[in-house]
């Protein structure tokens, strides 16, 4: 494996019914191609050696012997491949016939898994042909190889366990895939032959993705295709690969040609999900009572090349499909609204006080507040928007703040922090021309004091505006903008904040839309340092702390999977190829881990705020880490990259 990835393939070969030589030649040719692509595990359809639709010919010794010869030929050819291969073939055992998956590796047949559940409904009459393999645990001679024959079988290659289910086994109330996953299989292959009827493909994909999610595994499905008999049914040949509920790859439908789909499976992600999901382990302890045959295929996996058969989203918090982005924005904003509404009702707050800077975060917080008041039937004038110009405030953000508040119909207050901060500098004997951390934090804390005191005046609560990315980096002034009565954006990463504001903008009337879109286009800045000679923002956050899209990428894989810097660096190189040089990624990733650890003390006392994405750094159970945890291991690995 390279960086925890396993390269798998679902292959649908062309067949001629009962023409074993033709079928085997196609399988071998495709395997030559797969081996050149460094595929480590490959699966072909149900009965791929003979064709699935042979009917009563399966009871003919000539076809059964031909299948044995074909398996021997594939095994011989596999001497040249470093690939665990599964093909479908009929196997006779004690005068009973079984529909089987045959495992082949480096010149040997190493295992046979029979089908568990034999369908006999809706036109399927497999019971006239096949016996169920449930309860059978023996050794069978296949093409001269004596190999295990049983349903409960795990094939271990390197540190990956692979298991098999066949066709309708997936549809049983307790699927074999769930059992073998609890027994340790991270990869499940399905050799199938599903006929094509209108609407069936959508259901099939849903089942495959659901099965991979339920079993916390990768699921590789290969269905019989072109060349099967069309006497009563059509087999379109579906190749589908899913991983833990996510569809990674699928083949073209209704093609007359052979099909191959390849994906790099993230075994680390599967292992981490099972590690963190205690229900999975508890269920395995309770439900697993059967014995499993373990076949140690190989102690190591072949290396794979740098070609990457997987799409890595550079913005993992944001779907790449526009429809899904719409759904996400709708769900996130409404979750924020419900959270804030409950807090308002419970505290009997008569008003909300929010600092309006003309930046993204305060804009989103204000928009959520407006939607919440509208939903509660409260007058928008109960929202007190306070703009607090300081030494670094620019005309662009100042005007946007005023125009936005006016357009939304909330109560406006403008309180300059300049006189009070200058007095504070005098009190503590600080040179106001020294633009250091004291200069910046004094302004942030003064703004927070104003908001808190105004909230006391009006019987309201201060709405926090800081987002998930800022909290992860500690990019907030302790007891300044770090503090509020409810942090409505606490679960929203910066990359998503921009999408949410834009999403709301496109639903708004023209005047509000224009203001919001300009806010989206404004450089991110705390505006604590005076503007340049042209009145433009001089202090740009991403110049100081790094690009938020990189930080959010690292944050996602740190919180979601607990990946090491090396694994995240590998993924980031793929995701940001042509955007950031490798040394740039390394530099800002190092910055992230340094800040993530040394700023934990700020997160240890965060205000309440909703977890809207399932990933949070709330100290109340979502992310529990001591404030004095050392970052040495992480920074050392960053240095080695």
Total domain count: 2
Instruction: Give the averaged pLDDT, no decimals.
Output: 92
Write out the strand line-up for the largest beta sheet, numbering strands in chain order: 13-12-11-10-9-8-15
The CATH topology annotation of the largest domain reads as: Rossmann fold
Number of strands: 20
- How does CATH name the architecture of the largest domain? 3-Layer(aba) Sandwich
CATH superfamily of the largest domain: HUPs
Overall helicity: 25-40%
Count of DSSP-assigned helices: 20
| Beta-strand percent range | 15-25%
Overall geometry? elongated
Largest sheet: 7 strands, mixed
Secondary-structure blueprint of this entry?
Blueprint (H helix, E strand, L loop, with lengths): L4 E8 L7 H17 L4 E3 L17 H17 L6 E10 L2 E10 L2 E7 L22 E6 L2 E6 L2 E5 L2 E7 L9 H7 L4 E6 L7 H15 L3 E6 L15 E5 L2 E5 L8 E8 H10 L1 H10 L5 E6 L23 H26 L3 E5 L4 H17 L6 E5 L7 H14 L2 E4 L3 H11 L8 H22 L1 E5 L3 H6 L12 E2 L6 H12 L4 H12 L19 H4 L3 H14 L3 H11 L6 H17 L1 H4 L28 H9 L1
Parallel strand pairs: 1-2, 2-3, 8-15, 9-10, 10-11, 16-17, 16-19, 17-18, 19-20
Antiparallel strand pairs: 1-14, 3-4, 4-5, 6-7, 8-9, 11-12, 12-13
């Amino acid at each position: 494996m390279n960086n925890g990835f396993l390269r798998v393939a679902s292959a649908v070969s062309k067949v001629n019914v009962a023409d074993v030589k033709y079928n085997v030649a196609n399988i071998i040719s495709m395997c030559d191609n797969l081996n050149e692509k460094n595929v480590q595990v490959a699966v072909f359809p149900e009965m791929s050696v003979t064709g699935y639709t042979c009917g009563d010919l399966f009871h003919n010794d000539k076809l059964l012997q031909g299948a044995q010869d074909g398996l021997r030929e594939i095994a011989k050819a596999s001497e040249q491949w470093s690939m665990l291969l599964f093909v479908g073939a009929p196997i006779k055992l004690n005068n009973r016939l079984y529909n089987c998956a045959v495992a082949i590796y480096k010149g040997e047949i190493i295992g046979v898994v029979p089908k568990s559940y034999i369908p006999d409904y809706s036109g399927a009459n497999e019971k006239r042909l096949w016996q169920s393999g449930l309860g059978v645990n023996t050794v069978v001679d296949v093409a001269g190889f004596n190999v295990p024959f049983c349903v409960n079988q795990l094939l271990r290659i390197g540190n990956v366990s692979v298991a098999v289910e066949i066709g309708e086994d997936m549809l049983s109330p307790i699927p074999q895939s769930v059992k073998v996953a609890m027994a340790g299989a991270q990869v499940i292959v399905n050799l199938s032959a599903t006929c094509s009827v209108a609407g069936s493909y959508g259901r099939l994909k849903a089942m495959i993705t659901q099965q991979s999610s339920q079993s916390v595994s990768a699921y590789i499905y290969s269905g019989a295709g072109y060349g099967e008999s069309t006497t009563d049914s059509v087999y379109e040949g579906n190749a589908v690969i899913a991983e833990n509920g996510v569809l990674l790859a699928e083949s073209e439908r209704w093609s007359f040609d052979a099909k191959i789909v390849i994906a790099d499976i993230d075994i680390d992600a599967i292992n981490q999900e099972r590690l963190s999901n205690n229900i999975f382990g508890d269920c395995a302890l309770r439900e697993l009572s059967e014995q499993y045959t373990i076949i140690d295929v190989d102690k190591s996996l072949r290396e794979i090349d740098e070609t990457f058969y997987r799409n890595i989203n550079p913005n993992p918090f944001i779907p790449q499909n526009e429809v899904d982005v719409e759904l996400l924005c709708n769900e996130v904003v409404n979750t924020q609204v419900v959270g804030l509404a409950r807090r308002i009702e419970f505290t009997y707050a008569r008003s909300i006080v929010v600092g309006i800077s003309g930046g993204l975060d305060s804009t989103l917080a204000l928009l959520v507040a407006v939607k919440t008041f509208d939903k509660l039937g409260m007058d928008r004038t109960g929202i007190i928007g306070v703009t607090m110009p300081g030494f670094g405030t620019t005309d662009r953000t100042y005007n946007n703040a005023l125009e936005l508040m006016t357009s939304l119909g909330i109560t406006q207050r403008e309180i300059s922090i300049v006189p009070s901060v200058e007095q504070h500098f005098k009190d503590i004997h600080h040179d106001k021309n020294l633009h250091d951390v004291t200069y910046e934090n004094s302004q942030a804390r003064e703004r927070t004091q104003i908001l808190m005191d105004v909230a006391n005046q009006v019987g309201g609560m201060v709405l926090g505006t800081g987002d998930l990315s800022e909290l992860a980096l500690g990019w907030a002034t302790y007891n300044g903008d770090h503090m509020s009565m409810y942090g409505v954006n606490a679960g929203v990463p910066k990359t998503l904040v921009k999408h949410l504001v834009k999403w709301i903008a496109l639903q708004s009337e023209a005047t509000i839309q224009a203001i919001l879109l300009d806010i989206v286009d404004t450089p991110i800045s705390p505006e604590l340092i005076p503007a340049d000679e042209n009145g433009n923002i001089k202090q740009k956050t991403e110049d100081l702390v790094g690009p938020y899209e990189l930080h959010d990428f690292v944050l996602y894989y740190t919180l979601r999977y607990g990946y090491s810097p090396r694994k995240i660096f590998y993924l980031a190189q793929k995701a940001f190829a042509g955007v950031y040089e490798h040394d740039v990624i390394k530099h800002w990733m190092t910055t992230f881990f340094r800040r993530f650890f040394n700023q934990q003390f700020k997160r240890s006392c965060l205000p309440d705020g909703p977890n809207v994405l399932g990933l949070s750094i709330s100290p109340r159970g979502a992310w529990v880490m001591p404030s004095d945890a050392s970052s040495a291991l992480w920074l050392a690995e960053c240095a080695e990259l």
